[in-house]
């Protein structure tokens, strides 16, 4: 693309710089557009709009590539750990041995919650959706950790980030324990981040919990695959909330609320519910027909993506992991057969080919999470737990960006023009 782009509106010409990133499409810098022309751009859903500069994550949707700080997601999922990926996202480079030990130790020292927070849970109904509990409890952290909320101090920002990463497993496990009526378990810091979470979720005070290495490794992989994903809806929500200078814990609660929707993080719960409803492979054609019917709001959950128009690389890793985990655990779940068959049928169907709809990260994650023993309502909670790292890394990047401003989109107004008020008796 040229270095500048010329635009002519009403006979008046203006020129806009074109900016290039390391890789990926160029962007047209239209910050001066309104001043120069009096016009706004119109882009509902931000399909053609870059809202910020970021050095964290790169996605090439046509090639099915996802990089964190330049490292391909499949390499990180196969060879790294969630703690290492968290360090990478927060700090920009992979840690050395000592740096990783120090980081892991720091996170482990922040895993406990203020004891008063436990009473919050008791205010919820036992059948409350755990995502509702997550929104409430994470938002409430802002009332407890006043010493890490000066967002202009990089040190305080890092403490708030460490606290959020460290406390999220404790909060998530407590949401689960509350729903099943079991006592909360305190964290055990000699366990790894992921093993500690599994123990707090599935352990009971009455006996020792031995984390199964197969499950720990699968869970860690799932966390890595969900750690960050560029400027998606919940990350943009965190950035928008944070752009006003809001408290970091409140910003992450806003991200959790956005993630909950079935078009975003809630799709993993919806995908497994759908696979269970389909039940057996012979019913797949019925659901494919429904997904293609314009008059039916039904969509194949776990299929399609705003950015990936080729395979979602995370789904590739998870599809393989689902078979491995179920094999290793000796579980024969017909849902996995239904998922595999559905994938094959959809990938050969002209509707899905034309619209470039492929399985996304949520298609196989539910099969694994269900094999591990999580109820479907916990699936999005696990997504939120892992994505917290991405959210805080993006939030930190935004606050330290000298070009950062409060997010304030404009609109195309199509309501009534100015008119005079008429008293009620004369209407
Ligand atoms: N099943 C059937 N048709 C679909 C599907 C689907 N899953 N996804 C998109 N389409 C059709 C849609 O009807 C539309 O058709 P037309 O052009 O004829 O109107 C076309 O494909 C484009 O869809 P869109 O809704 O305009 O695309 P989008 O980029 O706005 O939406 C999406 C992306 C992920 C919201 C959508 O594909 C979807 O709803 N998928 C199911 C929910 C899901 O799995 N979400 C998880 C996304 S990955 C994890 C995450 O980000 O949280």
Automatic annotation (TrEMBL):
Entry GO CC: cytoplasm
Active-site residues per Swiss-Prot or TrEMBL entry: 305, 362
Pathway: Carbohydrate metabolism; tricarboxylic acid cycle; isocitrate from oxaloacetate: step 1/2
InterPro entries noted in UniProt: Citrate_synth-like_lrg_a-sub (IPR016142), Citrate_synth-like_sm_a-sub (IPR016143), Citrate_synthase (IPR002020), Citrate_synthase_AS (IPR019810), Citrate_synthase_bac-typ (IPR024176), Citrate_synthase_sf (IPR036969), Citrate_synthase_typ-I (IPR010953)
Tagged with keyword Transmembrane: yes
Catalytic activities: oxaloacetate + acetyl-CoA + H2O = citrate + CoA + H(+)
Annotated GO MF terms: citrate synthase activity
A GO biological-process term: tricarboxylic acid cycle
Keywords attached to this entry: Membrane, Transferase, Transmembrane, Transmembrane helix, Tricarboxylic acid cycle
Cited PANTHER family: CITRATE SYNTHASE (PTHR42871)
Name of this protein: Citrate synthase
């Amino acid at each position: 693309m040229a270095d500048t782009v010329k635009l002519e509106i009403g006979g008046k010409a203006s020129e806009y710089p074109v900016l290039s990133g390391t890789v990926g499409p160029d962007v047209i810098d239209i910050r001066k557009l309104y001043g120069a022309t009096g016009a706004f751009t119109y882009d509902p859903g931000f399909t053609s709009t870059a809202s910020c500069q970021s050095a964290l994550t790169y996605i090439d949707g046509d090639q099915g590539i996802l990089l964190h700080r330049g490292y391909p997601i499949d390499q990180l999922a196969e060879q790294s750990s969630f703690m290492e990926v968290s360090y990478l996202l927060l700090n920009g480079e992979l840690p050395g041995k000592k740096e990783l030990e120090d980081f892991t130790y720091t996170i482990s020292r922040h895993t406990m919650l203020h004891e008063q927070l436990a009473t919050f849970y008791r205010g919820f109904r036992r059948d409350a959706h755990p995502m509702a509990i997550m929104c409430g409890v994470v938002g409430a952290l802002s009332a407890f950790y006043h010493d890490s909320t000066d967002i202009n101090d990089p040190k305080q920002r890092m403490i708030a980030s460490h606290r959020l990463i460290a406390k999220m497993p404790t909060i998530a496990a407590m949401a689960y324990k509350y729903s099943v009526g079991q006592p909360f378990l305190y964290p055990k810091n000699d366990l790894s981040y992921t093993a500690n979470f599994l123990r707090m979720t599935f352990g009971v005070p009455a006996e020792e919990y031995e984390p199964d290495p197969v499950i720990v490794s699968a869970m860690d992989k799932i966390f890595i695959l969900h750690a960050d994903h560029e400027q998606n809806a919940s990350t943009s929500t965190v950035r928008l909330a944070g752009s006003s200078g809001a408290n970091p814990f409140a910003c992450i609660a806003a991200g959790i609320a956005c993630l909950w929707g079935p078009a975003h993080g809630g799709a993993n719960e919806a995908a497994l519910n759908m696979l269970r409803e389909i039940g057996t492979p012979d019913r797949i054609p019925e659901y494919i027909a429904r997904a293609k019917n314009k008059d039916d709001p039904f969509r194949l959950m776990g299929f399609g993506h705003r950015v990936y128009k080729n395979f979602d690389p995370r789904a590739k890793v998870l599809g393989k992991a689902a078979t491995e985990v179920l094999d290793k655990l000796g579980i024969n779940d017909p849902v996995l057969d239904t998922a595999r068959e559905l994938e094959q049928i959809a990938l050969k169907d002209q509707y899905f080919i034309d619209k470039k709809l492929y399985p996304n990260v949520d298609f196989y994650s539910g099969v694994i999470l269900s094999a591990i023993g999580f109820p479907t309502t916990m699936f999005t909670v696990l997504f939120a737990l892992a994505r917290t790292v991405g959210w805080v890394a993006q939030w930190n990047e935004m606050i330290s960006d000298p070009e950062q401003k409060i997010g304030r989109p404009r609109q195309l107004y199509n309501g009534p023009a100015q008119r005079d008020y008429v008293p009620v008796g004369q209407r």
